[in-house]
Backbone:
């Protein structure tokens, strides 16, 4: 069962993503963050707490295009973590896919 963090700075998109994730039987918990700073804080706390902690995060659904730090920026920062969660990029902007693949995203 997956513990998921969804990150999107557009509230309607975040709510829709959380609705879909929570309906999936493979998802144990799905929480949301409305921006990169909040996401990094929550992921950092979860990594520090360890994989058995209830706050642990297995997968981050990450919007690429956000104000301030982008999802690509967040992915680069997470690459420096000892045990970062898996990342699923979420975007309506096709052009970001190439950059995402540079960060080892898979299709």
Residues:
């Amino acid at each position: 069962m997956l513990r998921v963090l969804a990150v999107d700075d557009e509230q309607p998109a975040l709510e829709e993503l959380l609705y879909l994730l929570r309906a999936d039987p493979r998802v144990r918990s799905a929480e949301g963050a409305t921006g990169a700073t909040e996401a990094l804080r929550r992921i950092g706390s979860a990594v520090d707490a360890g994989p058995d902690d209830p706050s642990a995060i297995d997968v981050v659904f990450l919007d690429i295009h956000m104000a301030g730090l982008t999802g690509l920026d967040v992915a680069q920062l997470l690459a420096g973590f000892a045990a970062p969660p898996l990342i699923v990029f979420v975007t309506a902007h096709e052009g970001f896919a190439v950059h995402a693949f540079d960060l080892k995203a898979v299709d």
Summary: The beta strands are 2-7, 27-33, 59-63, 86-90.
